[in-house]
TrEMBL record, chain B:
It comes from Aliishimia ponticola. The lineage of its organism: Bacteria, Pseudomonadati, Pseudomonadota, Alphaproteobacteria, Rhodobacterales. This is Transporter substrate-binding domain-containing protein. SUPFAM superfamilies: Periplasmic binding protein-like II. Residues 1-20 form the signal peptide. Residues 26-240 form the Solute-binding protein family 3/N-terminal domain. The keyword Signal applies.
Amino acid sequence: MSKANRSGHWPKLSDKLTKSRDPARCQPLNRDTTIYNYCSDPDALEGVKWLSCYLTTGVHFQFYNAFVKVLLLLAVTAPVALSFGFAGATAARSRFLPLSWLGRGYIAVVRGVPDIAFFLFFVIALDQMFEYVRHVALCPDWEDPIRQGADFIVCQQAKLPLSSAREWVHETYAFALAVFTFAIVFGAFAANVLFGAMQAVPHAQLETAEAYGMSPRQTFWRVLVPQMWVFALPGLSNLWQILIKATPLLFLLGIEDVVYWARELGSTKTARFSDYPHGDWRMWYFLALLVFYLVMTWGSERLLNRIGARLSYGQATAGGEAMRKGAAL
Amino acid sequence: MKHLILTTAALALSAGFALADGHGKTVRMGTEGAYAPYNFINDAGEIDGFERELGDEMCKRAELTCEWVKNDWDSIIPNLVGGNYDTIMAGMSITDERDEVIDFTQDYYPPTASTYVATSEGVDLEGGVIAAQTATIQAGYVAESGATLVEFATPEETVAAVRNGEADAVFADRDYLVPLVEESGGELMFVGDDVPLGGGVGMGLRESDTDLKTKFDAAITSMKEDGTLNAMLDKWFGEGTGTY
């Protein structure tokens, strides 16, 4: 079959689209979005040239953008989760009982619930809670019930984000909810790690600090916290690796992450609807994801080993002792 | 005088709110983006397809501002009900089960034919393994036909299951399968007879959104009357599809 009528009696839609769409609202066509001039006729291209055009279509840039999303998620979640963890651990070992219960409760509950269940529940619950609070504050005159059967209805002004907001605002909001949920989940694990690390600091150190006349606050910040990191690091590095691997959960929350785009781009494309028809290429896209995640975890393991060595320096631990002896030799 | 100004200001404010509830609102249109020719993502990364073109035209006629949103098929109804978007246009057939949870406009695509596709003739359609997308009328039909049903989250996976031998045949909307069969170079073929299923494809809305439903119903009616809907159906699904 010749290339011209490969699609049988079906006219090629991309050609028809150009003519029939209102030019004023016409979206930039795919062939204009590629960066190379020779991409105007992909059918005539082969090999590397075809691939260079294929990999620079608008839809592929959304795929590359998704990698940025994953990195952004990691960059924001890690410090936020760590601070949640620090707050949780500090609360858990507080002498003020209710605060201690709060910290221990946070650690126990979040660690005990399956991540996926927590993610699915928390994001919906959080969103509806925000909207409900705004609804009560902004629309006091509203009389209809908020729940009508299965529908959850708040007034237009209480919508979050407002329905008139641009799509990127909606996406950012969903992303922020996801980051917050990630931070809560990983914060609980971090809290447990930090709690253990605080307990592991030799008690004699704290007693000595007290004997020197330091207040509990000074003992905490000047003696306990600087020494606990070396005990916390193995656990935290573990968590970091798990966090990297957990980022595809974004997909579950309806955020178009790398997994979404790999599945979408890899799926069969027919010549009627795409200038770059291909079969089921999902395997190759997922292979690319596999490489991406391996590089990420491998790189961060190297980095964490370096940090570990640095933290052990001068510490009264087996690692620190080994370094001291090594230097003396 | 001061009182008068205050009243005017209050009036203007309340008028503003009324406006915000009516014209200022953007209607968010949910779709799947993985079901050509109904809806799919084009090379530029935008939502495209029959429903995109139809939906844009309907919004124009109803004088609404619309924005498209993608959502997985699995959770497309819960997210509508939860208020993440206001309509569903995703090749969704009107069925009694769905009608209990959401509302539908009149159909903009007549009741569809579903069909089986396999890699060889003579597949046992009543006793074999049949792939279908989760929560579709096709999945419901297969489950009752006596065949072993395997469900997948996306249409793509249902066809892949046939290609790699996991399933004997896939059961889906004929319109979705036609381009795939034509371009498979003989690997895939239609088997068995077409099965008419569902009450046509319509736009899904929340049951409480009666105003919006009236507006879109009127838009569909006007498009049926002046022949534009038929023209769109012919364009996307082949000559002779438009029968309104």
